[in-house]
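In line with agreed milestones, the collection of sequences with tokenised folds has grown. One record among many is set out beneath this paragraph:
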Amino acid sequence: MLLKDRRTFQIIGEMKNLLLDSTNDIDLRINSKVFFFEPLSAKGFKNDEILFSIRYLLRKNYLRASDMNPNNISGEEVCLTVEGYENWIFPRGVLDTTKVFLSHATEDKKLAGDLKMRLEEFKINVFLAHDDIPGTVEWKDRLISELETCSMFIALRTKIYEEKTYTEQECGFAIALNKRILSLFVGTAAKDSGFCSAIQGKGFKKNDLSGMVEYCTKQFRPILESK
């Protein structure tokens, strides 16, 4: 990728962050001079670079100029489009503050299913791959989407879990996405958990389902009480 292209996508990333931090929504008017040019200029980007990036988003139909003229938008009002919302701002869905990605080994699906059922009694939205992915769906894309949109990653760390490559990949993905991670050490020790050894967690006996539910819901209490 050319340096100019890298610069453009860096600016577009900054523009995305500005929108995520704002109260703007689809089709609400945005003064591009105040909303984009001024804060990005303060970060050292040139006006022609910012203008080029906005024109790029107009061509992609992620933004729409109020006068529908993509060559005359400096200081003009623009709007975020539905396509921009779905394919640029939230390409894999919106972050769900009550969603949990429950990572488990296939052999532990009974325990994972029981935990999911109990947590959902507390209005926690639990994603469990073997329950929630239809056979016709591309499962890798679905897993990535669920990892990106969950607010918490729970690892059901049994001895079998530690032996599985894909579960450790899920945990690594969650770490890279800066998700909050809870490790439930079921019959295994924290020292066995690789990169997740320093992540918040607690040990449980395999039959202590109530203890696992109590521990997990306690972590969600501030979110649930705000609903």
